[in-house]
Specification:
Blueprint lengths: L1 H20 L15 H20 L10 H26 L27 H16 L3 H30 L1 H9 L9
Helix pairs in contact: 1-3, 2-5, 3-4, 4-5
């Protein structure tokens, strides 16, 4: 039962660190580009993550075969996802906001991870939460944590891409033709 405790502590520390890192990254705009996607994401996480963590400390849904290997892999995957997300956030710098926003001088970032993916911060976020679920060695934790957040992220990507297409037009359309959304060479 030590690995779930380690996973919970790592998740808590990285979650708080990210909140501190993103403090003040909410932008205001004359137009509502966000379409409640931040609210959908926040509610999904608020409802699904605690339930998934709780289930991870029970025997309900526990994976008994290769439990230690799955849990350790989950912790590594969670750390990899966090690193990927933070690299994406740091690459965008001031263009990264917690709510979907288009700035007057908005430019498409095409270097770093953004050379290959349009939404690497969401890729990292999803990998982090998949890893968290796996770290508990519990298939119900994986489902409870990952599936609702996947739905929220896909909605948010839809909203974000509509805003970018509307604001940047052919420039964003061309960028979309040369990059994938979340997974290199797949999607």
């Amino acid at each position: 039962m030590m690995l779930p405790v380690v996973a919970t502590m790592i998740f808590a520390v990285t979650f708080v660190a990210e909140k501190i890192m993103l403090w003040g990254h909410r932008a205001t705009s004359e137009q509502d580009w966000d379409k409640s996607s931040l609210w959908v994401f926040d509610i999904s996480g608020l409802l699904s993550v605690p339930v998934g963590i709780f289930l991870g400390y029970t025997n309900i849904g526990r994976i008994h075969t290769a439990y230690t290997l799955i849990s350790l892999s989950g912790i590594v995957i969670m750390l990899f996802g966090t690193t990927l997300r933070w690299m994406a956030i740091l690459t965008l710098r001031n263009y990264f906001t917690v709510n979907v926003t288009i700035f007057e001088d908005h430019q498409i970032v095409k270097h770093g991870l953004y050379k290959y993916l349009r939404h690497p911060s969401y890729s990292g976020l999803l990998v982090r939460y998949l890893g968290l679920g796996l770290a508990f060695g519990n298939w119900l934790s994986v489902l409870c944590i990952f599936v609702p957040l996947l739905g929220a992220v896909l909605y948010r990507i839809h909203v974000e891409e509509m805003a970018l297409n509307q604001a940047l037009g052919s420039q964003y359309a061309e960028y979309s033709r040369t990059t994938m959304r979340l997974i290199p060479k797949v999607y």
